[in-house]
Amino acid sequence: MDFLDPKKKRAHNIRLMIGYCLMSVVLLIISIYFTLSAFGFGVDTKTGQIIQNGLVFIDSKPVSATVYINGKEKDQTDSRLLLPTGRQEVRLQRQGYRPWNYAFDLEAQSVERLVYPVLFPEVLSSSNVASFASNPAFVSQSPDRKWLAVTRPGTANVFDFYDLSSKQTTARSIRLPSSVLSSGKGHSYQLVDWAKDNKRLVLRHSFGKKSEYILIHRENEAAAVNLTKHFNGVTLTTLTLRDKDVADFYLHDTKTRVLSSISFATKRQTTVLNNVQQFKSHGKSDILFVTPGAEKNKVSLAYFDGKTTRTIWSLAAAQSHLLDIARFDNEWFMVAGNDKEDKAYIFRDPFGSGSTSGKVVPSIAITQDNPQFLSFSPNARFITLQNGKNISMYDAETQRKYMYKTPIDADSKTKFSWMDGFRLMTIHNKQLVVWDFDGTNAQILVNTPTLPFFSNNYETLFSISSDKKPQLAKTPLVVN
Q: What is the pLDDT of residues 54-63, one digit of tens each?
């Protein structure tokens, strides 16, 4: 019986002790490994040295592009890569598409999300969808990017609505009743806004030296309304949709500086705010506005939530101010600036649950000499300040700022547009140029004199030519 033999018992105990020690060492090594990994450390398999890492998520559209890091193939897109800190040069490639390139410095324990790249086809082939007798005077796309409204050339009251989601890109036509449009010469249209139902839109109709507001319905021509006549007796200096719904409108009288609301059904007009020089609304009742300040050559930036008005900041008085308001990641972002201060102040949730009761101060400011345009990206993540080819950008997700000059020699009157939530675009020398939000990956897509339109899945581009016989062209952005 071995357990009665002292020598064998002692040897057994020694083996147990060695086993326990080995297990402890293994557990300690595993614990150290996971602890180091959690803090962004790793082991160089070639040298055995401990190095710091960062995590990079990479995806693309279309999917399954090959990922190259510093010239070496790593994986396919929709991947999660643990990379050493330092300079990283990313290249995405897929057969039939142009490559996408990006270089950045990866910090220890940081996470980079490169999930926005779009690879455009090497060769873009277009086909004609419709022909026009002359260039359409008005073209506009619905917010859901499904419908394209086009005035039929040679007419003032016929609108064609093209379904951009159908393979045939069919059109439905409506003819406005004669009672809707006032008679005159030189008819032209300017978009005020689309309603959020993507069926109705408000236009400013100009004829001669006069103008009026009309409401049209893309499915029902009889539902068209001349709003100027409908609100007979009400001064419609500036009319906009309230909460992008035709049930109520905002009216801003620039002479009296009264901002009011008017009901479409009851025609009842209600004062919302007084002494409003400029305003920007969001949703049903939130308004960012500029009002005369208490000090000379100053104005006050204020916020109205439907019940209470609160002062945010003091700005230099200017002929025109740049204002915008949006929500990103469940937080308010309010932005204001002008060419007198050469900057725009960004206020991040100034009256939210995390704000203090003290004086409101800007979260950050982006600078730009003589800024002319201010905009949020469609996803509200990026705030852009522009003067010609000069761009200042703030990323609300990463809290980074970018300043760069575009390769396009644009003048101060040129306003760049957002292609989607991550790319800007413009027309230069009758060519469509697009680039990423940070100024990288600029490239020419198609020849067109006007900004194009995209299907709701961004797999097709639509453009209108200005040839002797203008046409609506369809260009696939996905290679089969």
A: 999 999 999 9
The pTM of the full predicted model, rounded to 2 decimals, is 0.88
Q: How many helices (H) and strands (E) does the chain have?
A: 2, 40
- At which residue do the structure tokens 């004086």 appear? 359
Q: Could you tell me which of 58, 102, 98, 54 has the C-alpha nearest to residue 80?
A: 58
Q: Per-residue pLDDT for 47 more than 50? A: no
Question: What is the C-alpha to C-alpha distance for residues 305 and 448, in angstroms, rounded to an integer?
Answer: 43
Closest residue by Cα to residue 331 from 310, 353, 311: 353
Antiparallel, parallel or unpaired: β 298-304 and 286-292: antiparallel
Mean pLDDT of the region 13-41: 61
Which strands, in side-by-side order, build the sheet including 423-428?
417-418, 423-428, 431-436, 443-447
Domain locations along the chain: 2-38, 42-114, 280-447
The answer to whether residue 23 scores a pLDDT higher than 90 is: no
The CATH fold of domain 42-114: Immunoglobulin-like (2.60.40)
Nearest to 369 by CA among 333, 403, 404, 342: 342
Q: How far apart are CA 276 and CA 254, in angstroms?
A: 8
Tokens of 155: 């007419």
**Residue type, position 47, single letter:** T
DSSP H or E segment with residue 9: helix 6-38
Phi, psi of 31, rounded to the nearest 5 degrees = -60, -45
Q: Distance between CA 229 and CA 240 in Å, rounded?
A: 16
Asked if 420 and 381 touch (Cβ cutoff 8 Å), the reply is: no
Contact criterion met (CB below 8 Å) for 177 and 226: no
Which pLDDT tens digit goes with each residue over 454-472?
A: 999 999 999 998 777 899 9
Residue 432's identity, in one-letter code, is: L
Compute the distance between CA of residue 63 and CA of residue 59 in angstroms, rounded to an integer: 7
- Using an 8 Å Cβ cutoff, are 415 and 399 in contact? no
Q: What is the pLDDT of residue 29?
A: 59
466 close to 154: Cβ distance less than 8 angstroms: no
